[in-house]
């Protein structure tokens, strides 16, 4: 897979039939559960449903493939906006603090999607089997949206149908998942996913830096130690990290802290000062300033607004 073949032209009728069946299957499985993200018997696969558009909200996106079969959504990273809908899927190849918003959904025709967690080892195994490890990729943005193809949706459909056949699931699901990622790698922007799985490549080193920051985001950032841990100079780490994530390592750490503090206040009821301390802030006033800059309002105000919206039954 050292050379990527261009995707075939989309066949509207083929896609429409595949999307209709996928929408029916996801709707059937999620209707009793309501809006939200729902696990399946496959740990790697989750289903999403929203019957109304949602406000733009922060979230930490794990490495994943997201395929929309009804409605549409946007994700924002830095100044880049990614639209994904029944004609475009989204890939996030590294953990990223992003903003997300369902923009097209109604109770009669809800937003429906599935997301498949990305296991770098699965991608690396595919590359070894197809010769894709021979290329030395340059740094690439860690999120991208690309066109769906009938071949990709065919593999996705076979995976979804297996949810009705538990006896076949252990044997056939790994094969379907493998083909799904093969189709992404063969797609128009597959090189961006391939990049993080090529052993000891710069993208893989940046992915390792991202993971180290995620594991230790409460601790003071020592950029020299981080650079040494991923075998890069400080300047090369800064340049490549920003190219992949749109942020410097320090900005990335700050966003991880703020996202986690927001979760602690909303989910666990912590006061702003306690949440700030828990995520590594020494100055509550600095925390409040950073929080307002990212989320548009001071912590107490923004969290109260979210709670009021939830209490009123709004999105």
Automatic annotation (TrEMBL):
A Pfam match: AraC_N
InterPro entries noted in UniProt: Homeodomain-like_sf, HTH_AraC, Tscrpt_reg_HTH_AraC_N
GO MF, one annotated term: sequence-specific DNA binding
Keywords tagged on the record: Transcription, Transcription regulation
Domain HTH araC/xylS-type: 207-305
Keyword Transferase carried by entry: no
Name listed for the protein in its UniProt record: AraC family transcriptional regulator CmrA
